[in-house]
Backbone:
């Protein structure tokens, strides 16, 4: 069965990117510290394989336009996604086809339609909400999120992009036990409860 | 050896109390959900014993004046602390002696002095920073915190008192593995690293 989830690295103070995010500073100041656990101690090839394994259960991705704008260059000509990526945007654009099965599709008809297209593409595979924070918040507000995974990094950034800012109250329940890795990162996996709970 | 730490329940969005904290609403709206894990499934006596066990390694407590103001009534005539509690305040007050070894001492000479008094009282036992958030932030800014424990409750409150607001960046490292309990709460235990790191 297909599950819709998001999967993000987050600081102890709730940031998924540092302050001053720009095209040339896509993770914000010090924001790369949130992702070090995926790269430190791994060769570039191992890190690539690690990412591909993370995405393997997924058949489609939802992504915000800003995240694509800052990511499309670093992700390169053969992104690790290997699946269709549906970009929620107000700016129409022809699909951008990359190597290895990744195509960026630009959806201007709203979130529900983007999810529908993702479902059709994913079949029985999962749908991952890549980010950014705005898209995750929209998906939470629309009751679309079924599960989420947080990689809790033991740093306080002191500023940046807060994942849960402006999100209506909700309750979750662990879908799996926590795992502490050798980088000091705690991996948390939750399932949404009372998804229809009003704010 | 004596360790200085704080130990707080926190929501997924970083709040240690809900919105609208007042004397008659000391945990803020919905804030009691952050502490349910200590009480649900336990009798009042079991909950009391649980709290006493948590405090057993501690020989002294630091507390903010507002926390005392909202807590002194509910904690009652024989608080579970069983140790001297040093209240950081601008308002002088005679010590308030409770049963069972808890005395509230009012320190108007600043944080460093409060810690010194707590150290003298604690001997080899630990010193726990009870809260509230303001006091924890002051202790972090002063480089006084050696360890901290967070009980990560799987709720998003959407507002309230954020623990790490205005705290300068820092890095921690796990002092123990994470533990997921039957209430869905993940218990995290960190040691401060680079305590002298400038903001």
Residues:
């Amino acid at each position: 069965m297909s599950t819709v989830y998001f999967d993000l690295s987050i600081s102890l103070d709730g940031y998924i990117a540092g302050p001053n995010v720009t095209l040339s500073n896509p993770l914000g100041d010090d924001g790369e510290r949130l992702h070090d656990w995926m790269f430190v101690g791994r060769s570039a090839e191992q890190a690539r394989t690690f990412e591909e394994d993370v995405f393997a259960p997924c058949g489609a991705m939802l992504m915000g336009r800003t995240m694509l704008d800052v990511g499309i260059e670093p992700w390169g000509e053969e992104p690790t996604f290997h699946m269709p990526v549906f970009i929620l945007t107000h700016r129409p654009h022809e699909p951008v086809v990359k190597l290895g099965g990744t195509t960026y599709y630009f959806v201007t008809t709203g979130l529900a339609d983007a999810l529908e297209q993702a479902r059709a593409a994913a079949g029985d595979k999962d749908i991952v909400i890549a980010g950014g924070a705005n898209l995750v918040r929209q998906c939470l507000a629309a009751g679309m999120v079924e599960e989420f995974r947080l990689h809790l990094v033991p740093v306080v950034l002191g500023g940046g992009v807060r994942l849960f800012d402006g999100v209506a109250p909700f309750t979750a329940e662990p879908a799996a036990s926590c795992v502490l890795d050798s980088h000091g990162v705690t991996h948390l996996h939750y399932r949404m409860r009372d998804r229809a709970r009003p704010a």
Chain B is about 25% helix and 35% strand. The first strand of chain B starts at residue 4 and ends at 11. The radius of gyration of chain B is 16 Å. Chain B touches chain A through 33 residues (CB under 8 Å).
